[in-house]
Amino acid sequence: MRNPASESPRISVVIPCLDEAAITFERLSDLQHLRETGHELVLADGGSLDGTPEIARPLVDRLQTGPRGRAVQMNLGAKAAHGDVLWFLHLDTQPPPQAAAEVLRGALDGPGWGGFDVRLDGSDPMYRVIEVMMNRRSRLTGMVTGDQGMFVYRNLFEQVGGFPEIPLMEDLAISRRLKRIARPARPAGRMLASSRRWERDGIWRTVLLMWLLRGAYSLGADPGRLARIYYPARSYSRRFAGKAP
Asked: Degrees (nearest 5) of the Cα angle 193, 198, 203?
């Protein structure tokens, strides 16, 4: 997958966010070493009302604002990015040391796309069980979720048409497309992902909800309906209606 014309491959870290002022400064500060080594940070904001863009502006190379919706935001950020490799990070996840080198290796010298195993930041022993289940399922199915820090060679991303602009399961939808070309790379190290949803809504309730939503999606359920279950306080326009490709 390596582009012979690119002597110093560059990563564009694309970060979708919405109303994350409480963690924006800390998390973006932790990523400044990537800018110092020639990579870029692109924040794709979905209309935050809590001051997130103002906090982020001096800490990123590009700040894009557009409609709410993770897939829409990530596609917007990807269009503005200049890197050879697109690395999609959630603001509440933290990459492992040397992750950039692993991303370049997997995207340019490997299958062209991939994602890391996950470690949850909660201390409850049940999170260790959830981690194992998440990582084994991902390796078995060849699917990469947002918490895993999905990365993809830009040409490959464009080849599959980017993220399907659906309100939920966009990561699984693009994984299906990419997996037809090659199974994902699994770099060394683990992404540290936030367990705040489990802590807020309850571990077992959240696990059961995610299983049910994924199962329904695999059977062809409308992502718009699933999103209304997952995000009960949000509303979605009719342009999101329909099944994922």
From this structure: 125
**Measured between alpha carbons, how far is residue 169 from residues 22, 30, 207, 217 in Å?**
26, 28, 16, 8
- Beta strands 93-94; 62-65: pairing state: unpaired
What is the spatial distance between Cα 29 and Cα 197, in angstroms, rounded to a whole number? 23
Calpha distance 171→122 (Å, rounded): 23
User: What's the structural domain count of the chain?
Assistant: 1
Tokens of 175: 């994984």
Asked if residue 3 belongs to a domain, the reply is: no
6-25: per-residue pLDDT in tens?
468 999 999 999 999 999 99
Q: Model pTM?
A: 0.89
Residues 6+ apart with CB under 8 A from 164: 71, 170, 173, 174, 244, 245
Q: Are 115 and 144 in contact (CB under 8 A)?
A: yes
Residue whose entry in the numeric block shows the structure tokens 């970060």: 15
Residue 37: give its domain's CATH number.
3.90.550.10
Say if 204 falls within a structural domain. no
pLDDT tens column, 158-181:
999 999 999 889 999 999 999 999
pLDDT digits (tens, 9 = 90+) for 130-167: 999 999 999 999 999 999 999 999 999 999 999 999 98
